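user: can you give me the structure for this one chain? tokens are fine.
assistant: on it. calling the predictor now.
[tool input]
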Amino acid sequence: MTAPDYSDFSMMELFRVDAETQLQALDAGLLALERDSASATHLEACMRAAHSLKGAARIVDLQVGAEVAHAMEDCFVAAQRGKLSIGREHIDVLLQGADLLRRIAETPEAEVPEWAGARRMEIDVFLGTLRDVRQGAGGVAQTLTGNEQAEPQPEPQAEPATAAPFESGDDADRVLRVTAAHLDRLLGLAGESMVESRWFKPFAESLFRMKRLQTSAAAAIDTLRETLGDAVLSERGEAALTEARRKIDECHGLLAQQLVDIDMFDSRSTKLAHGLYDSALACRMRPFADGARSLPRMVRDVGRELGKEVRLEIVGGTTPVDRDILEKLDAPLGHLLRNAVDHGIESPDMREAVGKSREGVVRLEARHSAGRLQITASDDGCGVNVPKLREAIVERKLASKEVAQRLSDAELLEFLFLPGFTLKREVTEISGRGVGLDVVQNMIKQVRGTMRVYSEPGKGTRFQMQLPLTLSVVRTLLVEIGSEAYAFPLTHIVRTLKVRAEEIELLEGCQHFRVNGQSVGLVGARQLFADEDPKLADGELSVIILGGHGSAYGLAVDRFLGERDLVVQPLDSRLGKIKDIAAGSVMEDGSPVLIVDVDDLLRSVEKVVARGGLQKVERDTSRAVRDARRRVLVVDDSLTVRELERKLLDQAGYEVEIAVDGMDGWNAVRAGKFDLIITDVDMPRMDGISLVKLIKDDEKLSKLPVMIVSYKDREEDRKRGLEAGADYYLTKGSFYDDTLQKAVANLIGTVSG
């Protein structure tokens, strides 16, 4: 394992790095000892941390730090030898020592002598307290005082600095100091390379269209021969037709080989680009535990101040979190945990009276879920008093008594996030000012996240935050509005759906539709983004539901374009704040796309509604009638894959039939008329390669387009499929968003031509 590179660090900087690590271990060990004072493992960890701090302080000539660490080490040694039993009162004193060492480490090197002189009395009082602790061990004081230590611990000159707890094995590789600006630039370039790698896809698709045209030209020549029939052609005319057919076949073969090569190169470049981006992104990631190291101590101290027994459990400490998000989470998590201890956890006597353990538990969990970071802060306390909450809402005139009675528990809990709102009657140092949860929610919104609260009386409260994995990339839903593409962050979308014309109602001059029994206002996106009258196409609307409790709106867009991971590109600061727009990005074909600021958009909608300027969504009578639906046969032995492909193609307007294996597919092809065959490779009775060959070898079916969709993504697999006669090879590993729909459109066109 390569040693960390600290070559440009001063000795004092090295001490601070070491001290931070050792003090974190010391805090964790002391909190563990508070729950299990007899644990030899925790005692050993605390002793070694104090011992390392003593040695490091001596190396940089911080004698005051060495004194404090030495005194703490002596206490741990006495406990290890059974001559001192460390109780909670001792933990308090030792934690004070850890705080004192932290203050020493944070003091600038030139100011340490002055700082130590000004606090000499405080330091001597602490050292005297530790002497009293050791004297309480009975006869141990003489042994552990002065220079007469029994079995002195070895000095750490030859001992390497202890690595951070999350570093192990090869993960603790060389450490480089890189500025945040350079790292962000690297990530931006990696994102651009990922976008650039997608440019091969449109190029390959254009070649596929050329291949189709060549096939059509060859068919035209064959048709011409058949039309001429027995007519006698001149030798020159016959030679010209033969030569034209030969050259088309030659071009067709050459193009097929180039398509194989381009497809392979596209696959390799995409994998490399994604690998580069993932590696660059990993550089921005830090374990969640890095941002939560101080929280167990904070929860413990708040609990002691309030006379409560409480501990913090952290789950998912190794979950990688974007550096910028982790830094912004510090204050929100602190607010949530203090709120849980103060409002949620009951006193020990109250918990015991209702059959709970005297010690309350606050749980903090981080995990990745559905492409997002999910952080949950929960407690096993009393839960939110909903009747009291309803009374407080009415008392503060936030809602009338009648309205408050009709609100559900979930709707009532949303009031907790309002600025200045609190259920506390008295203001304390910990709570009661009403500046906690609203601050948390605002900070969560700043990183494009959402938060929900759930509570069950007598069992506890849970705050759930959904955050993006990184601020540099956002998962979005692409939509078309007035012939332009816009991206909506998925974290702000409640749901998407199709709304038929007959489902739209007119209430008080505004259009509404119902979802799960709830009335949702309908707004035309064209009015907001394109300054055009919104239109209802083909008797139904593509609608995005935005907002939350009591303020949800359905935004009618022209059509859905699929989901995308977009590299966020901040807009030029000279433009100022653009209404309803948060940032920009670039599509795989190089075209720009604007990322919508959903919060700003909702405010714009409310302003339009308030002034009565909302336009109705009318039927679009100018749109041409759609072509007859094209028929597609899906052949796959996996029920999941069949249904997924069927739904995607059905949404795109194609008529889909299914077959469960190659033999079933072959029978369906011969019995019916299809515009496209989509087949898997590995299937019972007959595999996909055999099916492709049968189709292409049949004179009547040879011109029928065939697409292979398979998990096999090796170059030899692609080559084998295309050489068998397949017109397109799509891997299920890259099967996302509208990739399948685009491939089908390239082969047989869209339903609208």
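assistant: here you go. Confidence is low (pLDDT under 50) at residues 1-5, 137-173, 621-627. The chain has 23 helices and 25 strands.
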